[in-house]
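Hey everyone, long-time lurker, first post.

I ran two proteins through the pipeline my lab uses and got sequence/structure pairs for each. Pasting them in order. The first:
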Amino acid sequence: MAGIEFFDVDHTLTRRSSGGRYVALAMKRGVVPRRLLFVLPWYSLTYRLGIFRLRAYEDGFPYLGGLSRSTLESLARESFEATLKNDLFPQAIELVQELRGQRRTVVLATSSLDFIVAPLADYLGVDGVLATALEFKDGVCTGRLEGVPMFRREKKDRVLAYAATRNALPAECGFYSDSIYDLPLLESVGRPVAVNPDIRLRRIARARRWPIMDLARSRPAR
């Protein structure tokens, strides 16, 4: 089969936010200001409630401006080993391994930053990563984004473009996600799978008879 299996990351493969884990470690190391401790819960809450404003993401990450790529990548590796690795759902690891054993192409498609999920991608041995990227000049982060965030329709467009370059039809592809924000992409592939879905996505998945996987409960559900 020529199709591709695409996976969201946060709350799909991992119990917690990869970005949240990363920023928490960066604060601990004194790399970013501790005032972010009061901002992160608000971002998390608005995201889970479905009222997250994309503009907040499009403004970039000014508190990372001036940091070298090597520093950011080193923190990402440390964050993965210290926390994110333990956040992985065992069933998610098994699923990725099973698909790779079937010689399926597996790609991460996430709104998280590319260097944050890079260690996870290496650990899982996936074939590619589509993610939000920061702008760097001479190896130093500007705090701005390179392009636009991998969010909602942008994620759909980039995933379908990636599939097209590999001669994979959308009907042959699968996408696994927890979030209502990913509905445009879920509706565009032949195998949409709701993984640990939020309330709105669960309702839609049930109505459309999409597979539902509740990994935290260690068993598939419908």
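...and the second, right after it:
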Amino acid sequence: MKNFFYGQRYQKFLKRVVDIFGSLFLLLFFSPICFFIALAIKLTSKGPIFADVPERVGQNGKKFKMYKFRSMMVNAHYLLRSDPRFKKLFEEYKKGSYKLRNDPRVTLVGRFIRKHSLDEIPQLLNVLKGEMSLVGPRAYYPDELENQKKKFPQVAKLVKKVLSVKPGITGLWQVSGRSEINFDKRIIIDASYVDNISLLLDLKIILKTPKVMLTGDGAV
């Protein structure tokens, strides 16, 4: 019975059941909040409600479209990489493990929903589609993953392990410091999660997540 709640058997069977019922419950629970977030985005900035961002790297390297509430100016991802005005900002972005503090692209509403991880609620749709899990490693951008592997070659093997499972909305590194943790340490934490994946560990991470959302600790 223990094996059913731990390791491969848990990942193949029970984890998916938890993901489906958990995401349905959370979508229903957060639906009033989502309405007000969507309204606030439309009233305070030009552009769509959902962020138009490149695909992320999922399980076994398969790319997928992640759903997020838009927290930045339109085309923010592309402007950072192509607009000469953001050249210095892009260098800072890469040096900071692909995270930025005081990002000028973030909108007023975006600053609030990013701090409390409310922009990530739509990822529950990715969970229902089977592209993500409620709990798992971070879902990386392809260029971010490649550049960071070059910067930290010592964790290349761990990256492969991390990509063997579905990325999560929340995870061990998210409740251990979020954006204050650099890529190499983040990968070590996520690889540790993969090695010890179980129902009990997932429940512990899920129970810690509301506190992180409310306090905004480690967010950028």
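Reply from user beta_strand_b:
Welcome! Quick read of the second one: The beta strands are 56-57, 63-64, 133-135, 168-170. The chain has one domain: 2-215.
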